[in-house]
Design brief:
Distance between the termini: 46 Å
Order of helices and strands: HHHHH
Structural class: mainly alpha
Radius of gyration: 15 Å
Shape: globular
Length: 85
């Protein structure tokens, strides 16, 4: 559901209505957060995931920032490095 039906419905409604479908957001929020090695790593860092929406967001952050070593372009990475004196 999370990786097939929900994205298809989201894209269809976005194209049809021109705005995101709130029901799709509610659906993904109703699923529990995913459990895998990536989300486990975030959990060990103290990140709390209330729903699949949170775990999907963290997977997106990891894929587009962490894996590509774009730490300073990511608000989380920038915060973790904390360059302030």
């Amino acid at each position: 559901m999370i990786n097939t039906l929900i994205p298809l419905r989201f894209a269809f409604k976005q194209k049809q209505l021109g705005t995101p479908d709130e029901q799709v957001i509610q659906w993904i929020e109703s699923f529990p957060s995913e459990r895998n090695s990536i989300t486990k790593g975030f959990s060990q860092l103290g990140v709390k995931m209330a729903s699949a929406l949170d775990s999907q967001a963290l997977l997106q952050l990891k894929n587009f920032y962490c894996d590509k070593k774009r730490c300073l372009r990511c608000a989380v990475g920038f915060y973790l490095f904390d360059f302030s004196p």
